[in-house]
Amino acid sequence: MISLSTHVLDTGRGSPAAGIRVELFRREEAVATGETDADGRIGELAADLQPGEYRLVFHPPSPFFARVDLTLKLEAGHYHVPLLVSAYGCATYRGS
C-alpha cells in the first residue's frame, strides 16, 4: 500500500501556508486533489496508490512561482513531501 501526505510552509512569513491547492497526477490523469488546512497540511492526499511515477503539483502563494511540479517515484509505504516556499525560492524533501 502506498499513501501520500504533504504540507506547505511559507518560509518568508515563517508560518504554515493555508488554502494551497495541491494535485497528484499519474501520467496525465489527476488521481487526487486537496487544499492545505490552517496548519498548512494535507494529512492524506492519496492512499491505496499503485507503484510508479507520479507528479505532485503545488500552487503556492508566490509572486514568482505560479506552480511547483515534482516528479516522484513511489514504491511502497507512506510518503510525506513538504514544500518550503517564499516569494522567490522553494525547496522540498522527503519527510517522515
Tags for this entry?
mainly beta, 9 strands, Immunoglobulin-like, five-stranded mixed β-sheet, single chain, four-stranded antiparallel β-sheet, 96 residues
Describe the structure.
This protein has one domain (2-92): Immunoglobulin-like. The chain is built from no helices and nine strands. It has strands spanning 2-10, 15-16, 21-26, 29-35, 41-49, 52-59, 68-74, 77-86, 89-92. The strands form two sheets. Strands 1, 2, 5, 8 and 9 form a five-stranded mixed β-sheet that branches. It is globular. The mean pLDDT is 95.
Spell out the blueprint of helices and strands:
Blueprint: E1 2-10, E2 15-16, E3 21-26, E4 29-35, E5 41-49, E6 52-59, E7 68-74, E8 77-86, E9 89-92
Parallel strand pairs: 1-8
Antiparallel strand pairs: 1-2, 1-5, 3-4, 3-6, 6-7, 8-9
**How many distinct beta strands?**
9
Biggest β-sheet description? 5 strands, mixed
Number of helices: 0
Provide the domain count: 1
Could you name the CATH homologous superfamily? Transthyretin/hydroxyisourate hydrolase domain
Form type:
globular
Low-pLDDT segments: none
CATH architecture verdict: Sandwich
Kindly summarize this structure in a few lines.
With 96 residues, the protein is an all-beta fold. Helices cover 0% and strands 65% of the residues. The strands form 2 sheets. Strands 1, 2, 5, 8 and 9 form a 5-stranded mixed β-sheet that branches. A 4-stranded antiparallel β-sheet has the order 4-3-6-7, with no helix packed on it.
